[in-house]
Amino acid sequence: MKLKKLAHLIALMGAVSPALAQNIQTSGPIQRVEITGSSIKRIAKEGALPLEIISAKQIEAQGIVSAEQLIATLNINGNGSDNLASNADVTSGAQRGNNGASSANLRGQGADSTLVLLNGRRIATHGMKGSAVDLNSIPMAAVDRVEVLKDGASAIYGTDAIGGVINFILKKNYKGLEAQGFVDVTEAGGSEIGRASLTGGWGDLQTDGWNVLATFSHRENKALRGDQRDFVNTFQPDRGVSVDTRGSPHANVFATTVGPSLLSRTGTGPTIPGGGTTTYNGISILDLPGGAGCNSIDGQGPYDEKLWNSAGAAYGCAWDTGRAAVLQQPVKSSNALARATFQRGDHQFFVEAVGSNVEVAKRFSPNQISPGATTFPVSSWYPSTGAAYNNVYNALVKVFPSISANYGLPIAYRWRCMECGNREIVTESKAARLLVGADGPVNLFGRTFDYRVGASRAFSESESTLGTGYNYTVALANALGTGKINPFLLPGQTQSQEALDLIKSTSAEGVVMYGGRTTLTQVDGALSGELFNLPAGTVMGAVGFDLRREGYEFNGDRRAAAARPVILNAPFDDPNALDGVHRDIKAVYAELLIPVIKNLDVTLAIRRDHYSGIGATTNPKVSFRYQPIPQLLFRGSYNEGFRAPSFNQLYNGVTESPYAGKDLVDPAKCPTGLVDATKPGCESITPTIFTGGKSDLGPETAKQGTVGIVIEPFTWFSANADIWEIRKQNTIDSFSTATMVANYNLFSERFGRDASGNIFGIDQRWVNAGERTTRGLELGARFNGKFSTGAIWTAGIDGSRLLEKKSRATTNAEFGPSEVGRFTFTGDLGLKWKHTAYVTYKYGDWSGLFQNIYRSGYDDQVLPGVANGLVKPTNYNPKVDAYSIYNLTASYTGFKNLTLTAGVKNIFDEDPPFAITYDSNTGAGSSWEPRVADPRGRSFSLQVTYKFF
Fold first, then answer.
1. Contacts of 101 (CB under 8 A, 6+ apart)
2. Beta strands per DSSP E along 203-287
3. What's the pTM?
């Protein structure tokens, strides 16, 4: 413990950004370059906007080999459901169908409000949903640096740039041949990471007039299963969490209205003689008096009827679905880049091709079998001829003697089909972009200007295929009805070979579930340069145009319409099928940099976009940079932005999903809003949830501002502080059921009721609705020095403080409570404070990095039984602890042409803090938060780089 505290103090002594960002250093003749966030070529240090620049060496020093890993270290990035770990289980609503994608989420504004560029230009969004760029498609082995603009930029780039811009800039004019190998192995096993890459460059632009660059890399991330980590345990009722599913490996017996069964002829479960009026359902013979106990089967535990406020479930067994899901999805990624550049005088012409192939396997709990008129009718229930029938009957009748009259009727049950295997959805995504362009000087009106033109064609296509764990419903029902498959196996028993063959014969493995494709065709150009002189300096300007066509198609089930047998719980999403839609975007923009007085520059920018089918929008931006003395800089900006609705938000069909959770009540009948079966009107409800698109959606709009200060009083110290605020209006939202219930007065027309006044459905389709305000403070400091030995050291910290995060469902409603430091099921988790601190040391051929990554705690989720006071867990803590890990790497360059980098991540093997993320509606989640923590634990990395010439 003392060692941890000491390490924490050392890490906090100094400071800069998570990726050790630094200003661009210039040497030799000063050249003007185009930086992210502006179209005017200028000296890099002249910018007025908060820009973080991360070099390839800084990325490698942290043992980072993928864009997803890099983005996760950025404090400015939100904590949303944008990484593969957050989408590894059953999903619903807006998260549904986002298979295989990993996205950025700057300032917590969402993946679709963060613009990702490659060499300053757009690439196609992920083919599955078409709303955000897949980070797995970025060729990280070819990246020279990454520029992160921490400000809105719709006035320069158009849609998507509300949260900010991430620009991956690739190597240029590279000469040599370099091979690199990387491996990262966890101490506890699972989730190994490996990458191999080869980069070659030939020719010199200055001497030869040409350069050719080619890069290929292959990366593999192995799966990390939930049962490989002890902190994944959803059976912790003493801390306020337990599993709400009685689909367990040893089946629970149910009474159902589908038909008469052993437990009940009417659908109402039996009572216990002398035990009151409580009717019991979902009963496991393991949990009855004298039974072997739910824990006798691996992964099972007793169902906590108090925590879930369901007294009739007292004799049920539950199963930990969280342990079955992968914590890290396995990924195989291949990326390639080829670029040829030609120099003719001061002009450069280039052709560039990038491509990627990414395969991601989503794996989670086996399917559960439940009675249903259209899925598993009476004929599929366990018959009296089954080998386990009498054993189940004898155990039940001892406690519930009234069922003796039902002997011979089949047993209705809920069962987790372990022999079917974990459900798996394999998504393969292919993406590419071909770009041709030119840039250089041109003389106009007696002045020299810089031009830049380009034309590109990009696509991303994805296809999801069913793996194990999916079975044809009718075939499986018929197989179960034979009684040869035993859902009531006792500890130590296994299915017969005949039963296993029956199950295998119903497998739907290999069926292509659906696929999507996005395309992007773009022609753009810009002209920038000096316009005229003022007393304070030269006025510079830029004008440009951007013409794009964006396309999207989603094919749904590819099987012939007449040959589509139903596959149990396979999320085909056929209502979303689109033959192909597209829209055209025409945009012009202008930018002006004005030196108002000495050391005060003001930049004005404006852009007008026209979207076919949506309309036109004009977005301005103004920024300033004031440096009264060399050691002090003030900066700020105001800009307006927009985000056009994605294709799936416009055109998705309506999907119906039954709500299975036990945390909803009818808000018109239950004044407390809390589930409490003892209070009339406060019983839990399970309505059908309707999700989908709306063709009349308009764009989101935003207004935002930033004001900051940078000081450098000494050569060995600098610091910065920037406060920012984003106000989004007409937000495109699909509100959660909890939000709609809490704001019933605003959404009452979206609650469908039957003739008796009971809720049968809730409409959660996308709408332009309310407003969202986010405010934050970004702080940074940096120290550097030199020892008498000549060794160089730096220390720094980069922190992000979320000051406000609130929203309202409609513009007429009051703002809801602050969302800072409070659990939410989906979307961005608003952590109050995040920082990354580091110390570096370099002496001769040796260099090292010691780093601390910190994420603050927050208010945890509260399950129904705790919320209504029915149960008070003995070890309950309403707060989730902070998450803090330390990393250490060292590099050695003493061997000719060889660089070795070794590291230890999560030195103290810190587990993710306990957090209640279990979702009773989907059965996903467990006891840790994938939006915040890394589940891998301590790992050891080694990177070897060899340069042949």
1. 87, 126, 128, 129, 132, 134, 136, 429
2. 210-221, 224-225, 252-253
3. 0.90
| Residue 4, SS3 per DSSP | helix
> Rounded to an integer, what is the distance from CA 473 to the centroid of its chain?
31
User: DSSP states of 14-51 as a string?
Assistant: SB--TT---PPP--SS---B--TT-SS-B-GGG--S-E
Backbone angles phi, psi at 137, to 5 degrees: -85, -5
Per-residue model confidence as pLDDT tens digits over 884-927: 999 999 999 999 999 999 999 999 999 999 999 988 878 888 99
Which of these ranges, 192-206, 345-359, 409-423, 734-748, has the smallest mean pLDDT?
A: 734-748
> Nearest-CA neighbor of 679 among 869, 501, 916?
869
Q: Which tens digit of pLDDT belongs to each residue from 778-806?
A: 999 999 999 999 999 999 999 999 999 99
Using CA atoms of 90, 95, 101, 106 in order, give the dihedral in degrees to the nearest 10.
-130
Other Cβ atoms less than 10 A from the Cβ of 479: the count is 21
In sequence order, what are the beta bridge partners of 610? 586, 616
Smallest CA-to-CA distance from 906 within 937, 949, 864 is with 937
Question: DSSP letter string over 532-557?
Answer: EEETTEEEEEEEEEEEEEEEEEE---
pLDDT in tens, 377-399: 999 999 999 999 999 999 999 99
Mean of the pLDDT values across residues 470-478?
97
Nearby residues of 445 by Cβ (< 8 Å), 6 or more positions away:
none
Across the strands, what pairs with 537?
A: 534
Tell me if 199 sits within 8 A of 178, measured CB to CB.
yes
Adjacent-strand bridge partners of 656:
690
Tokens of 364: 């989670």
User: How far, in Å, CA of 884 to CA of 831, rounded?
Assistant: 13
Taking residues 426-447, report their average pLDDT. Answer: 95
For strands 759-763 and 688-691, give the pairing: parallel
Q: What percent of the chain has pLDDT over 70?
A: 95
Distance CA(781)–CA(77), nearest Å, equals 19
Would you say residue 165 has pLDDT above 90?
Answer: yes
* Coil, strand or helix at 711: strand
The two structure tokens encoding residue 672: 């407390």
